[in-house]
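Entry for the shared binder. Reason: the reviewer on the internal report wants the predicted structure included alongside the sequence.
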Amino acid sequence: MDRLPKLIAPLLALVALAALVVVSSGCGTTDADPQRGRTLFIQKCSECHGLAQAGASAQGGPNLDHAFAAAREEGNDSDTIEGVVKAQVEYPRASNGNPAVSMPADIVTGQDLDDVAAYVGEWAGVPDAAPPKVPGGPGAQVFASNSCSGCHTFAAAEAGGVTGPNLDEVLPGETQAHVEEMIKNPNAEIAKGYPPNVMPQNYEQLLSAKEIEDLAKYLLENAGGGAGKSKG
């Protein structure tokens, strides 16, 4: 009998968390901005989570399309998925350095969380979802489709990421061949002040040779307001 209170406490905690998810689901945030949420998702979440509409292909954490595909097929609507996402972000598993089974607390909060949850709720698990088409040619589309704006600042793409180097500052004067090599083998030359293993190492497998060529050309032609013309 002495053990009963010790057993009841964790059970009650689990029931409370389950109730929170149920209450949160199905209650869409009416003043949320999913388009702003997409930008925030790319900046804050795409380093760990895959989501096709964001052009995110990271494999460290759960792929959100895979995670919610079955729920959407069973008839759960976007509001329900939005509520679950909000609950998971507000009450994540304690961060242990392994993004597959944990998540940092307060990765987004307040209105930012509302916007991100609304965006993920709208697109996670949607069949054949893809990034929106962007102007600027094929290289600009590669940049947008692969969430490069989540890590890099690049004015031509209206990108403001700060995880990686500011491309308007580091690319002018580079050669086409060198930029292509940086895309394919980012750890070969680490920019000062940035750690290794941040940029995905598998773009040579994910992208075709033509896509890498187009991306490098786009970056060089637009870096620094057009100052980064390719030197061949």
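Summary line for the report: Strands lie at 50-51, 56-57, 153-154, 159-160.
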